[in-house]
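Feature request, filed as a ticket because there's no other form

It would be nice if the structure record came with a short human-readable summary line next to the tokens. Right now we just get the raw output. Example of a typical job, pasted below so the devs can see what we mean:
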Amino acid sequence: VQLVESGGGLVQAGDSLSISCAASGRTFSSDFMGWFRQAPGKEREFVAFISWDALSIYYADSVKGRFTISRDNAKNTVYLQMNSLKPADTADYYCAAGGRLIGGPIYRPDYWGQGTQVTVSS
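Raw output as currently delivered:
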């Protein structure tokens, strides 16, 4: 199984950026998918989650109202549209797939991508 992110880059505060993650090796059309991020010197944190049918979507409070997660099951791909970007959004963004929800909800994926870097300058 491979998850390959693309679309990261350097943008200015207030700009928009879309990143995507294409999965291969198995289909995730019946699985959860999501995004996490890790800023320099910080732990990896949850960003967004989407159920297989897109009926359940969750966001971290820090990105709610600015980021939108979506998926295309026919392409085995998940997307993250990021608007009104802030320097605090600077991080490596990781695609996640499979796994389960526990508790609150907390997403525990089975598979991870290698990450794509997003840098937001002030």
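Something like this underneath would help us a lot:
The longest strand covers residues 17-24.
Residues 48 and 68 are 8 Å apart (CA to CA).
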